[in-house]
Amino acid sequence: MKVGIAGLGVVGAGVVRLLDEHADVLAARIGRPVKVVAVSARDKRKKRDMPKGGWRWYAKAEELAADPEVEVVVELIGGADGTARNLVEAALKAGKGVVTANKAMLAMHGAKLAALAEKNNAPLAFEAAVAGGIPIVKALREGLIGNRIDSITGILNGTCNYILTEMRTTGRDFGEVLAEAQALGYAEADPSFDVDGIDAAHKLAVLTSLAFNTAVDFRAVHVEGIRHVSALDISFAREFGYRIKLLAIARRTAKGIEQRVHPCMVPADTPIAHVDGVFNAVAAAGDYVGPVLFEGRGAGSNPTASAVVADLADLAAGRHAPAFGVPAVKLHPLKAAAMADHVGRFYIRLIVRDQPGVLADVSAVLRDHKISIESLVQRGRAEGDKQPVAVVLISHEAREADMARALKRIAMLRSVLQPPALIRIEQL
Amino acid sequence: MKVGIAGLGVVGAGVVRLLDEHADVLAARIGRPVKVVAVSARDKRKKRDMPKGGWRWYAKAEELAADPEVEVVVELIGGADGTARNLVEAALKAGKGVVTANKAMLAMHGAKLAALAEKNNAPLAFEAAVAGGIPIVKALREGLIGNRIDSITGILNGTCNYILTEMRTTGRDFGEVLAEAQALGYAEADPSFDVDGIDAAHKLAVLTSLAFNTAVDFRAVHVEGIRHVSALDISFAREFGYRIKLLAIARRTAKGIEQRVHPCMVPADTPIAHVDGVFNAVAAAGDYVGPVLFEGRGAGSNPTASAVVADLADLAAGRHAPAFGVPAVKLHPLKAAAMADHVGRFYIRLIVRDQPGVLADVSAVLRDHKISIESLVQRGRAEGDKQPVAVVLISHEAREADMARALKRIAMLRSVLQPPALIRIEQL
Question: ACT domain spans which residues (chains A, B) (predicted)?
């Protein structure tokens, strides 16, 4: 099978390296060789960690789609629109298979691209778009095909998981750990895409479509990042037997499908609480299989190359499945459950002036919003009155909208000195 | 696609139930309906937890292979030989696809059956044979196809994992917990197959073939069960920061491929140490993907049905892969590393008479066999001399053969009151 690769960054170079290093065993496993015949990258002279090949170079990625020898295009450019999308659409229209790692594009245009692929009888594969080397796309689409999936819970962004793990193990604050992660190359110079939860939300939107056979709907994802997670909250989490993780959750509820990305407290003894550092994990619950968990490296040159090559092998061996589990025409629009209707338990941390009546005021607001308290802890009481102290409340199950309204009222109390911190508790 | 099912125990009934309950969504996902048209089971009148169908009944399972309407035979009878093997061979010879959950048969005749399948251009699939609902066969064969796999480490027997978990959490001894597991239906009346490690070894032999593209070689598996694991050793494990798990390990070494099933001490902070109760898990290390871990229910009607139906879906959708990752003629014979050459760390627990000179004698034997001690702990010293006390030694890396010879000598020392207990330490 003859392949054209667009984008020769660390992932593209990894794919070239893998196909070269394992050429013989891959040919034996697949039944025929997979060979790169053309590439496109901005800088032809740049030094890359990969073997040299006799491939054709194209300055414009879109030209790969027109190369008559190229049977499959690997798109590793990135970005929801622009060159990446133009290339993918051109390749599909030419009846060529497409393998992509582009979660932003899939999150924005996934259903349309799947329809275009089917119309042209061209496969569209994207194992590398979610959770790096973990073969979660194949697992959901084929391995768990017999199940009605009821929920997906993932740690889908290695940068956030690394930062939260470092904060927990060193006690340092977000800003300090982020700066270190940037110096180490674990976080981008502009970290917003990762730490504000957008990257995880793109991946969640793709997983949701696969799991529930709904059209990808990125705009329905509720997204919060980890910037507001403080060392203080991490230390309280430990005290209460929790760990803080940025989770991406999709769940079937009576009101529709919830899709949300936000920091969560998870019980310290659940498997997902132990997924640390740059690792990713996806837990799924199926009606027949029960709970399953997949864990591995979520990014990096080699793990992502492993996923790209798995897709290439499927295409070369003629193993096809609809991109999102069912043919595009059968993807039903996602009926989104409103975040305001979400019901769950909450961790609320306040900084209050230590004086009589504060807890009575806070409790009254919560009562007025029908929120009942499971436990309440006050910490940091110093000698002398009226010092700032931390108060932590753990709620019983409450509606998101009620909690939001209550917190707005609480923030306005004169004795409450900082905006309240809220972290949702997931029992899993 | 028209299916015949042989064996209507809990798994067979689960498959019938799943295909019925999810008929519509499966047809959408696969592209065509999957329908049971014939079954075979010993007792036609037995009450089963499944819907009734208009299928043909066969008293003899082998007759399913001759039913002209049956395109795929699902073999859920079990046993390495006899009816199960006869049926599978007859079906393959008739060019029909076979889906089986029969690990004993695959462990004994896997390579031959794969060759027979290819000769007759009939697919052979067995996702349900290993680790229940976890799609590990597909993950190794397709999802990680780009990797050279260097090791596989699995918790592959739910009965043993349940017993060891109960022993750890309750402090009770093996016999007591086994009796309870039998009462609860988690262990068979004759538990040998599970607790002596044979079932896990069957599954490991299959995974080894998939991971290393070698012919299945069950006889090369070193097998020990969990009968000799004592509450005392579990309590020492905790003290040293370990948990005891029955692991199934296949590993590429300089001397060949190791395959071994035995109780292991694993560091309490590794993910596999937290796989508890009836859950299974498989960790794999690939040269590109790095470490990956898959966890889920390893047995039971519904999870196993989920795996059987995944295979049926692949067959119905025309997704084929060689049974063990490469065509049968390319499976090379497994070059087995001798267990005597295994190198690792060891936990040794002795019961000795508490008198001067005992530790000197033990240490001298170990020194004579070139085994060096990382730590040594004596516990249980009571008032008065010559009482039995427990002594625990943790060794540095040592050769299995040296350790076996040393333990034989130590067992003969007059002050050593019981046969020494040995548990291998796996760092993972």
Answer: 347-424
